[in-house]
Amino acid sequence: MQEDRRPTRNALPILAIALATLVFAGCGGPFPQSALRPSSDFATSLDDLFRGIFFWAVIVFVLVEGALLVAVFRFRDREGKREARHVHGNTVLEISWTIAPAIILVLIAVPTIRTIWEVDRPTTDPDALLVEAVGRQWWWEFRYPELGIVTANELHVPVGRTIDLRLTSADVIHSFWFPRAGGKRDVIPGHENHLWFKMDSVGVFPGQCAEFCGLSHALMKMEMVSESPAEFEAWVLAQQRTALGTGDTAPPQDEAAAEQEEPRGADADPQDEVTEQSREDPLGPELRAILTAGNQAFMQSGCIACHRIAGTPAAGVLGPDLTHIGSRRTLAAGILENTPENMARWLRNPAEVKPGVLMPNMNLDEDTIRTLVAYLESLK
Amino acid sequence: MAVKEAAAQHAAGVHTADHESTYSGGLWSWLTTVDHKRIGIMYAVFAFFFFCVGGLEALLIRLQLGSPENTLIDPDLYNQLFTMHGTTMVFLAIMPLSAAFFNFMVPLQIGARDVAFPRLNAFSLWVFVFGAFFLNASFLFGGAPDAGWFGYANLTSTQYSPGVRIDFWVLGLQVLGVSSIAAALNFIVTIINLRAPGMSLMRMPLFTWMTFVTSFLLILAFPAITVGLVLLMFDRTFGTSFFNPAAGGDVLLWQHLFWIFGHPEVYILLLPSLGIVSEVIPAFSRKPLFGYPFVVYSGILIAFLGFGVWAHHMFAVGLGPIANTVFSATTMLIAIPTGVKIFNWIATMWGGSLRLKTPLYFAIGFIAMFIIGGLSGVMHSSAAADLQQTDSYFVVAHIHYVLFGGVIFALFSGIYYWFPKITGRLLSEGIGKVHFWVMLLAFNLTFFPQHYLGLHGMPRRTFTYQEGLGFEAMNLMSTAGSLILGFSILIFLWNVFHSLRKGEPAGRDPWGGATLEWAIDSPPPHYNFRVEPTVHSRDPLWAQGGLDVDVNDPRAPEPHMPSPSWWPLILSAGLVIAAAGAVAKSLPVVLAGAAIVVVSIYGWAFQPLER
Questions:
Q1: Residue B356 and residue A14: Cβ atoms within 8 Å?
Q2: Which of A153, A236, B64, B118 has the least C-beta neighbours within 10 A?
């Protein structure tokens, strides 16, 4: 029958196309958010496990799909072919192909269970750095309770030190995921979850929420800055002090912050000189004026209801802490690069950037926006 | 002479005027019918309609994702589309398409004249149809449900989802659950009681077996989601706090209830397809199913184990190492009976004489794609490895290899296989094979790259992605593939319209099948078997000498069949009116719906079965 030969002729080019699809399907790159490029101990153990399972999957795939193809091509009906013999089964064969997959599954199960017990238990590292991550629609708050730092959407970690994350949610379920730091862990209201990892290389790693959490779920991103211990220490010091230009119209810093400054002063930290210099106003009168205006606009436009800027009366807790907003790489939870233009765009209409965002459109005029942007960007 | 001609026609199964009455009659006769064949056809038509609706939703999703930071579809609409795509494909397309086959084929395969409760059968159909339109009506009333087909608490609370979108989802699913449970009970009773003499359980055709198992899954799995939906309805309507953590509720309660239903639901979608493939492969290999008992027991085991694996959807929840270990292990166990089925299908073909007709093409395509979906499933079963995969596009690829590459291919195999029995005409082989190859290639182009997307860090349920993450090329491929995939469905529709008019007449048994449905005319007369057959083996039509009676004997008296009834239709309408009242928070409307329900149950109960 001619019809029955047709599949053979068609099948080869089609298989070639299919194979090409598989090969080129991985194209693109360089995949900064890829789980296949592990950069922490956690991610590496998951990756090792995955590669082991993948190895067995490829073997099973080749054998079973191969057997299927052989059966189709070898036993297709041809002219003069005898009627098929009616075989009903073969118990030995059937028992053996029940046992064979069971053996492979045991080979997968053993490393799986070993890895589960390695990654699902709390860390025992006494030197671990505790970070609290709070998921919120649609941004991340990061708190370093031991260091007195609160920031948003940008997680700074020292390379080579275990990070012990305590995950909670302020509203709905989110999921914390930096693929290159390891697997995800859900962030669940009413539950406290833990996750720990130790980064093994420096760099900036993107991550994002992995559990559907409402309208702008896709825009709930974050970045991890993994840096050398010295760079991390510098970042910590910068975050701990109030930003330049905040104190002008503000009352003196609160006591807790003052206390933190105290020991550093005793160590003759160069920071003291900076504070000294700022009293002499290194900014110049023009910039000073615009910053003062921006500061006033911030304090008077309702921003302080939701945002906190350490060292000022702004002490809101609903929105991101803006104490060092000027030092961050991105705005709006990893969506926009932190530039004056983007900051202005955000202030003009936050919902245009992030639909459904809690922050209302404050209907600010362009002058106010300009001074606010200058002020906020100065908060390094 | 005339007698001889009639006898020849009779032997060849060419339908006579008498048999055309199976589908004749106006709209009225279809609305009131209790004939399992008409009900099956209506299930198929409505399910295929919603398959196309769900497909269009998928195409819009893919168009939006075709390029980074695309603004074609805003996030609000996108979230409605992916929620309704999932809900539609699961509840309004695949389940009712399977139900279409249950309805049409099970009574024929077991030698019965109808199902056990024909009016209940009509009720199941109309509840499904009204429920499906009710759920989609939400698009016209402030938007469709938008919290995902899995509707995780507390995103579904009135605080985070005000409005009626979630209420439509809650009540729509409750209504559809009624349809599924009624249908499942009906098929269990039918299969237990109405088998032809001699058809022991271990002589039942595999498709009937899998229908039987699926029906048990339905009645055992649906109560879990029913409870979850009732709690959610109470939270939303009466201000209770089952899922409100601020008031002492727990959001994870929902996840457990949903997935205790949700994972068996996967097998509710899958098992009928395993049944179809187990019919098609032996028929076209000209060889009985290899290891029939192993295949049957594997199906039962898959269903049984399916209730013990729900927390594998929750590996990232932080249930702790013990739960994750146990649920990893139980999930891996499922790979064994699934593998057994695949090996038995290949062994059935081995040594056979394969007639490479379109139904077999789709069955082989099913096996080939299902292997890939099964292997990625084993990857998810490893709780630790799954921490990277869950909620990423890797899972999107996996479910589509199981539910499209698997289930949809198998359903098309079933359509090409049984279309001649249902309509009396064969679908075109040429168009069918074009359909197969286009669909196979487009399917892989659409979904294979999604494995890589997930592993490279793209989360699912995101309306956009930023440039620079390396997702652009693969998303574009996937979108291109989805458009071709949509086109392949048009090829199929063309085949149906072409073949309904010009298709080759099928006769009784165009494929040389082994099961009872091939002994009667195509389309079957409304009473199916004029004479009840007796069964002596698993493959009664392949036995020496075939059946020992002429099931179509025109000299036998014509069986009496149940009369049509309006009550199932009216009862279903009452149920959906009550649901609509609940969405609108209008007590009078709820009471009016309830009154219709009560009156029609009364009318139904006192209407004689035959007039």
A1: no
A2: A236
